[in-house]
Write a structure and sequence with these properties.
By secondary structure, this protein is of the alpha+beta class. It folds into 2 domains: 78 residues, 2-Layer Sandwich (GMP Synthetase, Chain A, domain 3); 81 residues, 2-Layer Sandwich (Alpha-Beta Plaits). Helices cover 40% and strands 21% of the residues. The chain contains 7 helices and 7 strands; from the N terminus they run αββααβαβαββαβα. Helix 1 crosses helix 2. The longest helix is centred in the first third of the chain and has 16 residues. The two termini are 35 Å apart.
């Protein structure tokens, strides 16, 4: 089998510098909702695996995504922070959903008589980090039921009249419980 050595940190193109700056800003402010969603898992070795779910990745290769993540960590937290990352992955929300990492979806069951309009529901979901990459249909998905419940709490806090329209849908991506368990281990 051939042994191929790759460049440790690919160069960041001028087109990607803006994404580095935006992700670096997100790392500094640590918002509790929206996109990008950043999952970090630190191991007993001190190394960390980082998964960034962000629809801005749609036109970027996997290599570019990893390079942007590493550069953003270096910019926001210094070289030592970047060096502790063993694996940096970036996925769009639809890609993470397909991989089985986001089984919980917050959905709106709005009726014509509800006190919130369709436009308001759309704005609320976008603010919370919904993806529009799935044929223009808004989808907001989460790794855990707790994240989905917190989303609904934020929505109801901001728009109390919307309480009856929100619910959580859990999608089972696998009938094989062993495989499902492995996927659940990928994201906290």
């Amino acid at each position: 089998m051939p042994r191929i050595r790759l460049e440790a940190t690919p160069r960041i193109s001028a087109a990607n510098r803006g994404l580095v700056a935006r992700l670096s800003d997100e790392l500094r402010i640590e918002r509790s909702f929206g996109q990008p969603r950043i999952y970090e898992q630190t191991y007993s070795t001190g190394k960390t695996r980082v998964l960034v779910i962000w629809d801005e990745w749609a036109d970027r290769s996997l290599e570019e995504r990893s390079a942007i993540i590493l550069a953003a960590y270096e910019s926001a937290e210094g070289t030592s922070s970047r060096d502790r990352i063993a694996l940096a992955s970036g996925l769009t929300m639809p890609e993470a959903t397909t991989a089985g990492m986001l089984p919980y979806q917050v959905i709106a069951s709005r009726r014509a008589t509800d006190p919130v309009t369709e436009a308001e529901v759309r704005a609320m979901l976008i603010e919370q980090g919904a993806s529009t990459l799935d044929s223009g249909t808004l989808r907001i998905r989460f790794a855990t039921v707790k994240e989905a419940e917190e989303c609904i709490e934020r929505l109801v806090e901001k728009y109390p009249a919307s309480r009856p329209i929100w619910s959580i849908l859990r999608e089972d991506f696998s009938t094989d419980s062993e495989t499902s368990s492995e996927l659940n281990d990928l994201v906290p």
